[in-house]
Please model this.
Amino acid sequence: MAVSRKLAAAQLSVAPARLIQRGQRLPSSTCSFKKGTQAQACVFIIMTELTPVNQTTVHPALPDAQTVTSVKHWTDKLFSFRVTRPASLRFRSGEFVMIGLMGAPDPKTGKQKPLMRAYSIASPAWDDELEFYSIKVQDGPLTSRLQHIQPGDQIILRPKPVGTLVHDALLPGKRLWFFATGTGFAPFASLLREPETYEKFDEIIMTHTCRDVAELEYGRTLIEDLKSDEMMQELIGADHLAKIRYYPTTTREQSGRMGRITTLLQDGTVFADLGIDTINKDTDRGMVCGSLDFNKDMMRTLEGFGLQEGANSDPQHFVVEKAFVG
Model:
């Protein structure tokens, strides 16, 4: 704890040759004074030496902390945000990581534990930031707090990506189907901006089913921006971006296309709308991400078309992200 020698000298005509350490005796050569002022000047030096200068409260840093760079609220139940990317993080487009915040202190011990959840990375592998798309659960342990983050805040991010919604888990094919409900669109937001997607497939069909029209806005805006953005056209190619066919549906609010995607596949509506014969195991590949019930229904539907579920260790016709529920 140091004091400014210039300040002390200016105020009290004191010009110490060195700082006085706590408990050290003050030598007579340290003070410059008039008769009767030595005690006052020397006492001032000792007291200010013991007073910290620019004292600040240091808060402990979050473990594996990353800084929020932007936040966008799409509806009262959905929001997306971007954070800094750890320099060491390498991932494949479509994978997920664990993110979270510190929980409330334990009432007995005062200790805090991190609240972590699996979140698909919505940004592509080449992006220098990380994007996430989240639901707001008002009484949820994590999202009740996460929905209030602002640029400059920090979150916890474990830099260990995993997941099955990757190209390595699929056999080669011609047409790639993305089947999503709700925030299950997130991994496909990554894959739609991944050049490899268009190198491997001739056609990409993005189906997105939500209850209300507003819940489709994140995906619709991303695809529109993707096709019109000059940088993306240069990176992926306008011809490749033209391969995207967007097929949104709603199940509650009236819209241009109503119904569950599983029902629309089974009754042939999707194929009639898109001008496709059917789903064929020789040409079609699929990725599924949504609620638990949706995932199970989609698995049965795709298996009904003769497709087999695959994994990183056993590439097949379609894959399902079982870690995601939303």
Summary: The longest helix spans residues 292-304. The chain has three domains: 5-49, 65-162, 167-320. Confidence is low (pLDDT under 50) at residues 1-59.
